[in-house]
## 1
Amino acid sequence: MRIIPSIRDMQTWSENARRRRLSIGLVPTMGCLHEGHGSLVLRSVRDNDLTVASIFVNPLQFGPREDFGRYPRPFKRDARLLKQWRIDILFHPSPKEMFPDDFATTVSVKDLDKTLCGPRRPGHFNGVATVVAKLLTVVQPTRAYFGQKDYQQLKIIERLVKDLNLPVSVVGCPIVREQGGLARSSRNRYLTTPQKNNANQIFTALQEGRKLLRLRPYSPTSALNTVMKRLKHIPGARVEYLELVNAETLKPARAIRSRTLLACAVRLGSARLIDNIFIDPR
Ligand code: PAF
């Protein structure tokens, strides 16, 4: 595994690989890797001739009161894991390399940020879209891999790739969970062991919601109320939102007519946890 910190060197490497007609998989990350990232890397290594993983804690996607400063950066451990997972290139640019002082461009995808995390994290998805557009143009991958835990992020990236005709296939991969059901996330590190045990109840509540929502005569409003009650009962939890949205448009859904997403954000201790579950019509 080779570590490349420079954009110019990354582009040269990709151009050489493409000239040799080798397919490139890209797994963009902010580091602090876990098994969720592992599943994306595994898929990329399986699907492509070469795999690039990037580690870049993107300042543009953190709000002023968010955890940019304390976001964990265990670089040596991450590099060791990526080597074990058999990637070819670790792209690890500095903040100045990605966003020099005169950087002036923002990529913004309309409408898909109107629900879920969008209103609660103003500017977050513009930051994500901007960095991902840049990573895709620098690395020029054949395929790029993203987890479905950040489902809204995945939909926004799919749209930006379509709208800008970027020559890459976006691959969404299933959520990887801890044994108790908690969705794997770098931010789980902020949880104490008792908080982690309590956090498992988020997935249990979503599963119950899915069951209720698929019972025909049951109204979505009462199903959501039941799930909301469950979430609020988790010790120490503050529910930021619980929403039912169309899985394609991310617009609020009032019934399960096509694939629908039940999604929530819950604050527990100093962690903000998101999770979601698909509900398909019967
Ligand atoms: O999902 C993440 O880790 C980040 O949002 C991403 C896609 C690497 C962009 O910074």
## 2
Amino acid sequence: MKVLTSLQELQSFLKNSGESIAFIPTMGNLHSGHISLIQTAKKFSKNIICSIFVNPAQFSENEDFATYPKTPEQDLEKLENAGVNAVYIPSLHNVYPVKPKIQLDIPHLTHCLCGVSRPNFFNGVMTVVLKLILQIKPKFIIFGDKDYQQLLVIKEMVASLSLPVKVISSPIIRNENGLALSSRNGYFSSLEIPEKINKILFECVETSFRTGVELALLEAKNHLNFLDKIDYLEVRSSENLLLYKVGDDLVQFRLFFAGNINGIRLIDNISFGL
Ligand code: PAF
């Protein structure tokens, strides 16, 4: 596996590498969820590039940019074992030689859910992903269903700008208790709290089919009252994030959750179609 720590090294690697790159952007602190994105990528290409870059532009001032977990040695070992061809670890200057003055926005997808409490987030994500696509020129780019809103936003950015890359989605990886793997789980000394949240979310999905969405959401919000904040608990379309209305076909929808406890923000989403 080549470790490319500058744009120049990336460019010389790309000159000698074949076509059809499958690319997985990450912020490092890799876990089995990321490795599953690599397994998905392998279905599309033998030429796999991952990036590790903690993108300052997608964090707001009060968020965890400075303390975002960094595990570079372990990450490289995991990527090597997963059979990645190259890892791109750009410097801040490689990605942001100038402070971007552009604002990227897809209002119907970015002004709800995470976009409400994290107003910089999707502009920052789109900016960095667009820059990485322009630098790496992959044929495929892989995103997890775990960050479902991010996946839809990137798909729409690629479609709106006619970028020559295909966005591939990869299913959420959950532990034996159903908890979605996430770097932020590592902030907890035990998984008791995130797993409790997870159980309530799955119960909410089940209850929705029995009692209807409105009552199920009310009940779940009650059960989640140990959180410092429920950022959102909403049922929205898997296709365009429109809010569920009574009479809609629930299997086309997802339960979206974000909440904070002890300064840690957790998100998850569960499809009603499973
Ligand atoms: O999902 C993430 O880890 C980040 O938002 C991404 C896509 C790597 C952009 O920084």
